[in-house]
Design a protein that fits this description.
The protein is α/β, with parallel strands linked by helices. The protein folds into 2 domains: about 100 residues, Rossmann fold, CATH 3.40.50.10860; about 120 residues, 3-Layer(aba) Sandwich (Rossmann fold), CATH 3.40.50. It has 11 helices and 10 strands. The strands form 3 sheets. The protein has a 5-stranded parallel β-sheet with strand order 5-4-6-7-10, with helices on one face. It has a 3-stranded parallel β-sheet with strand order 2-1-3, sandwiched between helices. Helix 1 runs parallel beside helix 11, helix 7 crosses helix 8 and helix 7 crosses helix 11. The longest helix is centred in the last third of the chain and has 21 residues. The radius of gyration is 19 Å and the shape is globular. It starts with a helix and ends in an 8-residue tail after the last helix. It binds nicotinamide-adenine-dinucleotide. The site of nicotinamide-adenine-dinucleotide has 25 residues, from helix 11.
């Protein structure tokens, strides 16, 4: 079975509408997106999010910084957005440019990224990347935000009725935005989880026994037919662009008629990532307009 992400995303949009219908707020949800540098792929992803906002009647604003900017100027801008009552969600487009990280050198490279992310008000952190929100979902506190792609992957598994209890889930990729939150959510569903990364040489040792394989490495053809059994479910998060064409991490042509189910690239996980960014924005909008500040889940 080839899984259609667009159809599943429609369900998320109707859940979002149901959520918004429960509240009477006089203004529209608004997202502010910060881009440092001018990576073409980042701009493309941002435009996709802004287009979806427009379609849903939400507002969006793009703030651009040069890659030679001072990190403190970026953080000052985030602070302004944190205090701006018309802004519900703040998103800093990742990855940060190499030059920006180099110029703003701190003892550990990732600290520049962490410094920026943790300057976002956790109640507006719709990407779920602040330490506060990471802590919340690890601690099963439903008032925080979970990264959109991870929610999308779980929605796909739920949609195709995969009960993860006791299943072996192999996740390839351990980033904070994709691999780690997915692992956490799979653990919550009682799966046995194996996390792999670039230091593991023989990934087929693990994938051969996997019931569910989640690919998030960004390496085309990382998974082929010899590495899986025919009852496996393959969720392909990876995106690579070669000659203007998108590829996932799975060898789709080999696997589509072999495994139990697989997501294509494009048209698999991607539409769900956008849908859950919008869902998180709706959730932030309601939270930020609710004087009782009760949880919205
Ligand atoms: P990242 O670069 O932060 O992490 C990549 C991970 O893959 C790392 O943990 C690395 O160790 C691992 N890895 C790399 N090569 C490997 C190999 N040969 N074997 C095993 N592990 C390997 O990237 P990310 O932000 O987590 O994104 C991962 C991929 O998912 C990228 O292709 C990205 O474009 C894509 N992505 C897609 C969506 C979507 O909506 N479909 C959303 C976010 C990210």
């Amino acid at each position: 079975m080839v899984i259609n992400g667009k159809t599943i995303a429609e369900e998320v949009y109707s859940e979002l509408q149901t959520l918004l219908d429960r509240y009477d707020v006089p203004r529209k949800p608004k997202i502010a997106i910060l881009l440092i540098g001018n990576r073409e792929d980042s701009l493309k992803y941002i435009k996709g999010k802004m287009r979806k906002c427009e379609e849903l009647g939400f507002l969006s604003e793009l703030l651009q910084f040069d890659e030679t900017s001072d990190v403190h100027d970026v953080v000052k801008q985030i602070d302004v957005l944190n205090h701006d009552e018309s802004i519900d969600g703040i998103l800093v487009q990742m990855p940060l440019p190499y030059l920006f990280i180099e110029k703003n050198k701190v003892p550990h490279t990732e600290s520049v990224t962490r410094y920026i992310l943790d300057s976002i008000d956790p109640n507006k952190d719709i990407d779920g990347l602040t330490a506060t929100n990471i802590g919340k979902y690890v601690a099963h506190d439903k008032t925080g935000f979970i990264p959109a792609t991870a929610q999308g992957v779980m929605k796909i598994l739920q949609y195709i009725s995969i009960d993860l209890t006791g299943k072996h889930v192999v996740i390839i990729g351990r980033s904070l935005i994709v691999g780690k939150p997915i692992a956490q959510l799979c653990l919550e569903k009682n799966a046995g989880v194996t996390m792999l990364h670039s230091h593991v040489s023989d990934i087929s040792y693990y994938t051969m026994s996997a019931d569910v394989i989640i690919l998030a490495a960004g390496k085309p053809n990382l998974l082929n037919r010899e590495m899986v059994h025919d009852q496996a479910v393959v969720i392909d998060v990876g995106i690579s662009v070669t000659d203007g064409k998108l590829y996932g991490d799975a060898d789709f042509s080999q696997l589509q008629d072999y495994v139990k189910a697989i997501t294509p690239v494009p048209g698999g996980v991607g539409p769900l990532t956008i849908a859950y960014i919008m869902y998180n924005l709706g959730k932030a909008y309601i939270y930020n307009n609710d004087s009782t500040k009760n949880s919205v889940s």
